[in-house]
Design the sequence.
């Protein structure tokens, strides 16, 4: 890119690489009058031309798309210092759109750009979309995605999931203005009917998109008086309705024993999984809490869960007499490190991902469906404690649940270890 003065006025020129010249009628360079005599003004105006020509070259090479070109023009309009510069950039946008329409018409062999059939052609509509994006008449739906994600306190795995959700939504609704209730309902219907999404997944996706929409409203990029996510017909989870809540079901005590036996089976023998199931059935702890348990947090007759997803989850758990030999063996002579020493972390730092999948294969082999997971063992423990007459507040302190009442939930410091130990002593499994 360089400037050349002819008389009093400056011109912008840009060499066209040889490999793409055939896209531009064989021309060796771009050239355009900037219509100004001031060199500094010419430099600013030439910047938008340079970007346009570079993106034209990139598009000829298949490296960019119209939305990226539009985003550049929109940023140029925002940063323009004078009204004359804004008008210049708008002229460039209009010229770019016109040139592309002419190109489409030439390829289609059409002479009249006002022909109704021409106007509804997908390529023509794409150019119209480009013009609206470039001039700010419409706003890209995902324009503030990175900024929204940065405001969230979620773990990275959840942030990545929300990012993927918004990007997928944007492929259906490229601009804020595209998001209308009727169209959103059609999108929900397609998630269920065409993509086979379960009710729980659809409602999670909808919740994430609605959260981002509220962020756009806060920035005044989406209308406050219009909620396209209100009054929608959402799919219902039949399993959840039938169970009155969470659709994960508890195993029976016998089924937990069957899982343990299956993990010990010679064909699918998995000693590490046997130990994990053993810890789960005598503690009711979450799988990630157990996989993240460190030797430093294990005392003589209890262990401390210091890394859990809730405040109530961070607690001391008595070591059941049936569990003590397993923990002693896993520790061995080590003084530090994870109790499950050989587990590896995924990219989010979770240590339970791989062994959780192994558990899934074992339970599927026994005929269990997705309504039963490792979390179901946690429900088994709670169920046994309830049937043994253990008070709810004691069971809550054992498994790390919030206590709903103000007296116990807000004011109490929690049950002592001995109270929890006596309660855990009521856990029983067939043949054990």
Sequence:
């Amino acid at each position: 890119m360089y400037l050349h003065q002819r008389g009093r006025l400056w011109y912008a020129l840009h060499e066209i690489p040889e490999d793409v010249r055939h896209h531009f009628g064989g021309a060796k360079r771009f050239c355009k009058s900037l219509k100004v005599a001031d060199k500094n003004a010419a430099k600013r105006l030439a910047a938008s031309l340079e970007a346009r020509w570079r993106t034209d070259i990139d598009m000829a090479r298949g490296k960019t798309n119209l939305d990226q070109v539009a985003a550049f023009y929109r940023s140029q309009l925002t940063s323009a210092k004078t009204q004359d510069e804004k008008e210049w950039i708008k002229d460039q946008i209009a010229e770019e759109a016109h040139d592309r329409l002419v190109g489409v018409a030439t390829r289609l062999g059409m002479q009249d750009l006002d022909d109704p059939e021409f106007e509804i052609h997908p390529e023509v509509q794409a150019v119209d979309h480009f013009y609206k994006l470039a001039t700010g008449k419409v706003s890209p739906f995902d324009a503030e995605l990175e900024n929204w994600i940065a405001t969230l306190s979620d773990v990275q795995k959840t942030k990545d999931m929300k990012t993927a959700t918004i990007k997928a939504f944007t492929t259906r609704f490229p601009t804020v203005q595209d998001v209308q209730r009727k169209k959103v309902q059609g999108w929900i219907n397609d998630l269920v009917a065409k993509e086979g999404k379960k009710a729980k997944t659809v409602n999670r996706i909808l919740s994430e998109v609605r959260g981002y929409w509220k962020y756009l409203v806060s920035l005044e990029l989406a209308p406050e008086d219009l909620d396209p996510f209100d009054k929608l017909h959402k799919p219902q989870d039949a399993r959840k309705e039938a169970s009155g809540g969470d659709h994960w079901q508890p195993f029976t005590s016998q089924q937990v024993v069957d899982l343990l036996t299956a993990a010990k089976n010679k064909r699918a023998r998995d000693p590490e999984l046997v130990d994990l199931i053993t810890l789960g059935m005598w503690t009711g702890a979450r799988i990630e809490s157990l996989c993240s348990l460190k030797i430093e947090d294990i005392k003589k007759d209890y262990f401390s869960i210091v890394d859990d997803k809730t405040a109530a989850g961070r607690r001391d758990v008595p070591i059941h007499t049936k569990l003590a030999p397993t923990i002693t063996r896993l520790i061995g002579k080590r003084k530090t490190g994870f109790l499950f020493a050989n587990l590896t972390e995924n990219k989010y730092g979770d240590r339970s991902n791989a062994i959780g999948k192994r558990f899934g294969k074992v339970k599927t082999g026994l005929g269990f469906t997705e309504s039963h997971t490792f979390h179901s063992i946690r429900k088994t423990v709670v169920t046994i404690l309830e049937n043994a007459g253990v008070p709810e507040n004691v069971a809550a302190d054992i498994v790390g649940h919030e206590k709903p009442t103000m007296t116990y939930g807000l004011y109490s410091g929690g049950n002592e270890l001995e109270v929890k130990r006596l309660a855990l002593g009521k856990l029983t499994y067939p043949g054990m």
Summary: Confidence is low (pLDDT under 50) at residues 239-245. Strands lie at 2-6, 9-15, 29-33, 302-305, 315-318. The chain has three domains: 2-135, 145-239, 253-424.
